[in-house]
Amino acid sequence: MSNEKNPAAPAANAPSPNFLRAIVENDLAAGTHVREGLPPVITRFPPEPNGYLHIGHAKSICVNFGLARDYQGRCNLRFDDTNPAKEEQEYVDTIIDSVKWLGFSWEQQGESHLYYASDYFERLYLMAEYLITAGYAYVDSQSADDIKKNRGNFGTPGVNSPFRARTPEESLAMFRDMKAGKYKDGEHILRIKMAADSMASPNMTNRDPAIYRIRHAHHHRTGDAWCIYPMYDFTHPISDALENITHSVCTLEFQDHRPFYDWLLATLSEGGFFKLPVPRQYEFARLNLTYVVTSKRKLREMVDEGIVTGWDDPRMPTIVGLRRRGYTPEAIQLFCERIGVSKADGWIDMSTLEGCLRDDLDPKAPRATAVLRPLKLIIDNFPEGESVECSSPVHPHFPERGLRTFPITRELWIEQDDFMEVPSKGYFRYFPPIGDAPGSRVRLRHGYVTECTGVDKDADGNITAVHVKYFEDSKSGTEGSNTYKVKGNIHWVSAATALEAEVRLYDRLFTEAQPDAGGRDWKPFLNPNALEVVTAYLEPGMSAAEPDQRFQFERHGYFVADRVDSTPGKPVFNRVTTLKDSWVK
């Protein structure tokens, strides 16, 4: 079951070495961040509350919380809530829930380390005023188009704003008027000049970065108290410093932002706002996973256009989607540990994630029998109205978990592909008598050996039932049953007692490994077979399955009772993954 302890759980294994661990260990050895009353390692996970977390965020969560856990430190959860136009409490709530579900906590010794950038708005504003008075910041009144044009490009240096020479006094007065709501959105912004020739910097991020913009929008926490909001590049390093972060770990796209990060904290330290040492930023390669897209914009587009049923659609790479699909926190942690941490971008195949899921579920999941594409089987010589109890291990490798029981009756359900009217070479399941040769003999797993005697067909020639006879002395586990030597062995359920259930067969959302590579349109690569819904028949004990309970449907794969649509006595099942990689070319 899903809550049973997995003997192969990642927490039981020593973490793999990587360059981030080497940095932390060197800092610990040197005493770089020894501060009274604080742990020597403090990391943070700083999501923007403008969408649902996805599998890429899961890697960042595991890296940051994992470093803190393994070096007796702590990891803060901090929301970068500086863009009220795109942020909602719904996103805050789901992020909190997802981090908890993955198995991590920001609480330490009864103290919560959950923070919001909006908690720092007043201090951020005062630091911005200091940068203006110190001559490092100015109010720019260019239009957005002019700012973009004058910024230049990688081959062309930028052009100084005509407002760059504004005096600190004039910029300060204008900045205070911006705060007082005297200007419209986009009328002015506050920019930083790191050096006299910043607009010629080969690093585009250093070309007078904006740190405050006007935005008359209601904030989900501060309401209408502010109409100017700090930019991420300004907020992030200051928030890190205010929270005493030691190792600010982020993905490679922020590598070009590190010079400004360092400059800003060094400048504010000179101004007396922070004591040394200040946080340092380190970058690692983001997770690029095949057969998914992780762009928040594209994920939102799928939801808005009805391509999927919502953020928690089991085909989605969101954490809520993976959770509803039936993934376990341990499987995702194991995946993040296996793929490691590097400085170079690369692609991880979806099969690696699915392999971690199978490794985690195999020792946990109790077994069950399910017929997904049913065909009626009639045992003509079995007494009508009678039944015989059969049994099978709850888990074949853990006999201490006991047995599950189910009846065999005159009419059963078998899989459609367990019968072939004209058998191919090497086919050992049911086929009818051919000429003078008898029909095939097949063992009903945990039951009797049977021999196919014929079929029923409808007016269109479709097979509606298979007829067999059984051998009463062939029941599995009874004396004499071994005298029957048959190659075919199939699963089945009693038609009289089976649970009829909706089963959703989920597959990968895209047919191409990199559906949006090079900025191309990803929609033509949507997999039309990513969801198939079937009416299946399950062994009767499955009616007791609880939401989020996982099973291995023998022969078919791993399945979970849907956490949303399952009701008492009437579970709905999602296929989590097949028993083996079905995408191997």
From TrEMBL:
Sequence motif: 'HIGH' region, positions: 47-57
Residues binding ATP, per UniProt: 48-50, 54-60, 251, 286-287
Binding site for L-glutamine: 80, 232
Location, primary (coarse class): cytoplasm
Top-level lineage group: Bacteria
Signal peptide bounds: none
SUPFAM superfamilies reported in the protein's UniProt record: Nucleotidylyl transferase, Ribosomal protein L25-like
Stored Gene3D superfamilies: Glutamyl-trna Synthetase, Domain 2, Glutamyl-tRNA Synthetase, Domain 3, HUPs, Ribosomal Protein L25, Chain P
EC number: 6.1.1.18
Catalytic activity: tRNA(Gln) + L-glutamine + ATP = L-glutaminyl-tRNA(Gln) + AMP + diphosphate
Span of domain Glutamyl/glutaminyl-tRNA synthetase class Ib anti-codon binding: 365-470
Sorted UniProt keywords: Aminoacyl-tRNA synthetase, ATP-binding, Cytoplasm, Ligase, Nucleotide-binding, Protein biosynthesis
Compartments in which it is found: Cytoplasm
Domain Glutamyl/glutaminyl-tRNA synthetase class Ib catalytic: 41-362
Quaternary assembly: Monomer.
Family classification: Belongs to the class-I aminoacyl-tRNA synthetase family.
Name listed for the protein in its UniProt record: Glutamine--tRNA ligase
Native species: Massilia frigida
GN (gene name): glnS
